[in-house]
Design a protein that fits this description.
Elements lengths: L3 E9 L3 H12 L4 E4 L6 H4 L30 H14 L3 E3 L2 E9 L2 E8 L4 H6 L15 E8 L6 E2 L12 E2 L12 E5 L3 H12 L3 E5 L14 H9 L4 E3 L3 E5 L3 E6 L2 E6 L2 E4 L3 E2 L2 H6 L26 E3 L14 H4 L2 H14 L1
The structure holds flavin-adenine dinucleotide (FAD).
Flavin-adenine dinucleotide (FAD) binds next to α1, α2, β4 and α8.
């Protein structure tokens, strides 16, 4: 198949950082294209519906575009609107619902292979078929001198690896509580996503039980959420079992091992919110080595963000590997300028 017209920089992922990378590349005189497997800021479209960012708007800005927000901290929908407007204002070349599956070639002439996606991550999730590329013939490959991988981490949940995990009432992403009022909701996990979901479901009439692997609510839970959850647990409004390990999920119950031996709780709905991680199979396919450290960090230079495969860069949260809280929008957006400067200097040679 004939390649699509070449560009200097091909960015994989239209998250906040990927968009920033394309903007900064254009500003140093390079041509850029973004390939995105879902919608614009696809990860944000999957966050809880009424969530408020913990960052103030100016810390989420990219390309020096002001982020107007009525609130002290913006809502998810404000951020989705903002990034889409920035993308349009900058007239970026973006191809949506196209998944990058492989990168051939070398610096100066990469050939990037993609596959069409016909539905969004939201639709896929509803249909319980996350991360399944559609069975479509390959699209025309793209040719680029440099590639920036800004694929984040939100597409792969960390599995429990227990029987029943794939049942239809088990969810790995949380959106909103309304379908589960007066139902028994079991929340597995005790970090931010689990804490927010447990509180939200409780306040909207669900009977919430948390199964927590550690001995307490995670210290990484935001400082205004943690005491709220701890107080609800202390007052018995949310039931919590600590030091537990889920063993099996069936249609009506979740089974676990705990300090008092084997236990069972009723669960009409199970929210298995045990974290997310980068798509390592894609990174390996793209030739990126993975460090043998606790975070399984994809190998890259900390200053230039170039990976072990010359001409391919990493940007944004994917840089942190399994340490998904190391880079976020506030600090990850700055990768864009550093990468653009490094590529511009190389492109001149
Ligand atoms: C509930 C919640 C609240 C948060 N609040 C804040 C906050 O207040 N402040 C803050 O700074 N951060 C916050 N974060 C973190 C922040 O949202 C992420 O760090 C940020 O989205 C990372 O941006 P990114 O561009 O690196 O990755 P992402 O936004 O995850 O974008 C990656 C993109 O790559 C696409 N992609 C993946 N694989 C492929 C492929 N093979 N081909 C094509 N496209 C692909 C994905 O569809 C996605 O659109 C929050 C996160 C969560 C979950």
């Amino acid at each position: 198949m004939q390649p699509v017209g070449p560009v200097d920089v091909l960015v994989v992922g239209a998250g906040p950082v990927g968009i920033a990378c394309a903007i900064e590349a254009q500003r140093v005189g390079l041509t850029a294209r973004i390939i995105e497997k879902g919608a614009v800021v696809n990860s944000l479209t999957g966050y809880p519906t009424n969530m408020r960012f913990f960052s103030t708007p100016e810390l989420l800005e990219i390309g020096d575009h002001p982020f107007p927000s009525r609130g002290y901290k913006p809502l998810r929908e404000d951020a989705i609107d903002y990034y889409r407007r920035v993308l349009q204002r900058e007239a970026l070349d973006v191809r949506l619902y196209e998944r990058v599956v492989d990168v051939d070639g070398e610096a100066g002439r990469f050939v990037v292979h993609t596959q069409s996606e016909t539905s969004s991550r939201e639709d896929q999730r509803e249909e319980q078929r996350d991360n399944q590329p559609d069975d479509q013939p390959d699209d025309q490959p793209h040719v680029a001198r440099f590639v920036v991988i800004a694929t984040g981490f939100f597409d792969q949940y960390v599995p429990l690896n227990v029987p029943g995990e794939d049942l239809p009432h088990v969810h790995h992403y949380y959106r909103e509580p309304y379908r589960w009022a007066l139902r028994n909701v079991v929340v597995i996990g005790a970090k931010n996503s689990a804490a927010i979901a447990a509180l939200d479901c409780h306040r909207n009439g669900a009977n919430v039980t948390m199964l927590i692997r550690g001995g307490h609510v995670s210290d990484s839970v935001k400082y205004w959420i943690k005491p709220d959850l701890e107080n609800r647990i202390r007052e018995g409004q949310i039931r919590a079992f600590f030091n537990t390990r889920v063993t099996t999920i069936d249609r009506h119950r979740v089974h676990f091992d705990g300090p008092a031996g084997a236990g069972t709780v009723s669960g009409d709905v199970v929210l298995a919110l045990t974290g997310y991680r980068p798509d390592y199979s894609f990174l390996r396919q793209a030739g990126i080595d993975i460090a043998d450290d606790d975070a399984a960090t994809p190998v890259h230079d900390e200053h230039t963000f170039e990976t072990n495969r010359g001409g391919i860069y990493l940007a944004g949260t994917v840089c942190g590997g399994n340490n998904t809280s190391r880079w976020f929008i506030e600090n990850g957006r700055h990768h864009a300028r550093q990468i653009a400067a490094h590529i511009a200097a190389r492109a001149e040679r």
